[in-house]
Every structure is written in C-alpha cells, then in structure tokens.
C-alpha cells in the first residue's frame, strides 16, 4: 500500500429486490477479503484511507464486540516502526458505523487488548514502536452501510523539545496541540512530584521583577505547569511547579525562564488535546471589607471583617486598617470603638505574600440613638370599672425620634404580662430632666379587683433605628391597689 492509497472493499452490488421466480434464491454480497481477523488489511503507509459497503461482512467465532453488538465487521492492522500518535477517523461514514482499536500481544483474537471505541467519530492512540494494532470497523445494524476509514499520524507540536521552546513576551496567550507531544531524554518528568507523559516548552526572558502568573488547563487530561532556569534540558533548576491551572512567581530581571506544559496520558479518547498557555502580570488581590453592627453607636465595639482574596491563590499576608478617626489596626478581623458620632471613612489595604497590594474603603455612619423611660405614673388605687390614666415619660437627649411605647399589665399567678395598648408618637430632643409623656387610659376590671392589685409594664422602642442602650427602655410600675 502506497502513502495516500485507497483500498476498496470487495463487494457485489447490493440487492435491490427479490427474484420473484419459483425456486430461485435471493442474491447476497460476498464477504470482503478482510472480513476475518486473520485476513486484516495491513496498513503499510500513512496516511491511509479505505471505504466501501459493509453489507455482506460477518463476525467470526470469538471476535470481540466490546462496544455494542455488531453483525458485520472488517479488520485492519498497523505495526508502528517508531513511537507515534495515530488518529483513526470514521467521519465520512454513514450512520451506524463504529470503530474499535486493539493492541496485539502477538497472537490471534485472544491476544487483543481493548484501547477504545468510537461511534462514527475518531480515536487517538499512542502507538509504541514495533507494536501491532488492530482496527475493527463494523456496523450495529445489518444490511447496506457505507463506511469510510482514515488513519493518519499526528506530528508532535513544534515546541515539543526544550531546544525548540517558543520565545514569548508579555502578555502571551497561545494554544498547543498536545495530542502527539512527547518527552525527551533528560527532561524532568515529575515537576513538583507530579508525573507527566508529554510536554511542550515556552521561553521567557524577564525585563523586570514584577510578579508573573502562568496558566494552563486541559479538558481531557491532568495537566502540570512548571517553570525552570537553566540552559539545557538535563541541567534545569525547578523554580515552581503546580498541578494545572495557575503558577505565580517573581522573576529576576534579565533571567530566562522555561515553562514546561505537561499532560498525563490521554490516548484511547477521541479528538485532539488542545492545551492553552497564558503568561501575564499577576493581577492584584481584591480588597473587600464589612462590619457589624451595620448601624453602630458610640457605645459599640464595632467588629470589622476582611473579605479580601488573592485571585491567583498565593495568599494575603497582611491587613492594614485605617478607621478614619486617627486610629489604625492590623489583622483580619479587628474591633474598634468610635468615641463620637460622625461619618468615618474606614480603609483597608491588603498585601500578598509576593508583595502585591490593593485597597478598599467604606463609609461608616456612627449615630447613637438612645431614649429612656424615666417616669412611670400609675394611680395608687382604683376600683373595678373605673378608668384611670397611666403615663409613661420618655427622656431623649440625642436625636429626634419616632417612638413606639407598649403598655402591659400583670397576669394573675405570676405568668408574665398581658398586652393593654400601644402609642406611637414623635419625641423631640428634650433638654435637662424633662420628658415626653405617653398617656394611656385603662379601665380596671373585676378580675383586677379579685386579685386586689395590678402591676403595669412599659416597653419603648425607637422606630427605624437601634437603641444604643436598650436596658432603660423597659420599666415596671409600683402595684395599683384595686377594690371592688
């Protein structure tokens, strides 16, 4: 077989109808020459193509059918003279055609080791030197099925060897087909302790000492990324290595660095392995901050939080806080109390292990809301059925507020308090010892008289704000004597 040659299956024209003559039988195609494993068509040169109708082909006793039932198959063999990558393809076939590839250990059907299968698509395998491989092409439906097989060698990438490393600058972004990539004698095969099966190389000469990040990934195999210094493949010094994704380091100006993009074994799969590679200045960290409570007062020890992160995963080393009132702190989550109400711009600067930094700020409003129940006037005595006034007096020396006051009365048997009523009103700033009254009317009941006394409770709450000292927002009166 010559390079690029096409081999036609030996077939007879497909049957187009039944012979309607008494005693006559239907005519069926004869099996092709490569119908059986022992008669596999030898692929002697690449690229190779073959096509034909699978109608009339058969399966033989003991023939492996790993991927699905195949009533009709043909066979091809290929012995690699050197280690290479092969791609077998069925893309020009009709529906219903599949392909299975086996490695032979030198015997018959029983010596085959399954490598992979494809339904109408392609398969890529690593072919070892002096090893024979068999391609089984079949259909999972009987009758006329047109197949087209192509087999070709996939060349290694141009930067497969260290000496052919692609020179790159900043920023760089490119993709290498790693399907047929190899390793060479003396090449580090376990960067960072992570084994690789093949690699490609890039070379970069640093002009400065800014932090750099290289990145790669692969959809189909485990990938590694390593950076070295040195001048020969067997004299490299590892700077850093990672399992795929991102690698960050600080270069020395004027030094040439070599990036090794590695992959694990991927053969037996379909298609090619495209592996991107990027090199760029490392992005800064992201500084973010928060605090609690969100409405602090001058009585609160405000808890601050850093939500900062490093997008390349090197990590943040330090946190510097400026609280905007002349005070500062370090650490991830410091606390701080502001002595006076006001608006403060709180700033956070974070620095990574490799010296990158970022800052963020947030405006914090310190406003101390505080009202207090300082008077609680109830009658000393009352009679059942009598309506009397209960007055709750609020003092307020901070800000004008809208305040809700709820009134409760004691429940017989010491079971807490029962709701009586509520009043909401505006409470302005009240100078000195003056108060703003909340006046309730209460009609004493026969049940109150049966107990003989009533105790009232008042609870005040600022509307739309948090009271900085809630302990003085609740008051309990002296008992009122109740007669029948």
Structural features, described:
The chain is mainly beta. The chain has 4 domains: 149 residues, Jelly Rolls (Sandwich), CATH 2.60.120; 120 residues, Jelly Rolls, CATH 2.60.120; 78 residues, Immunoglobulins (Immunoglobulin-like); 113 residues, Immunoglobulin-like, CATH 2.60.40. The chain is built from 1 helix and 36 strands. A hairpin with a 5-residue loop joins strand 22 and strand 23. The longest helix has 6 residues. It is elongated, with a radius of gyration of 43 Å. The termini are far apart.
**How does the overall form come out from the CA principal axes?**
elongated
Helix content: under 10%
Terminus-to-terminus distance: 123 Å
CATH class of the largest domain: Mainly Beta
CATH architecture of the largest domain: Sandwich
Number of extended strands: 36
- Outline the low-pLDDT stretches: 1-28
Beta-strand residue fraction: over 45%
Strand order of the largest sheet: 1-3-10-5-8
CATH domain fold name of the largest domain: Jelly Rolls
Major sheet attributes: 5 strands, mixed
Taking Cα atoms only, what radius of gyration do you get, to the nearest Å? 43 Å
User: How many domains comprise the coordinates?
Assistant: 4
Relevant terms:
single chain, 484 residues, mainly beta, Jelly Rolls, five-stranded mixed beta sheet, disordered N terminus
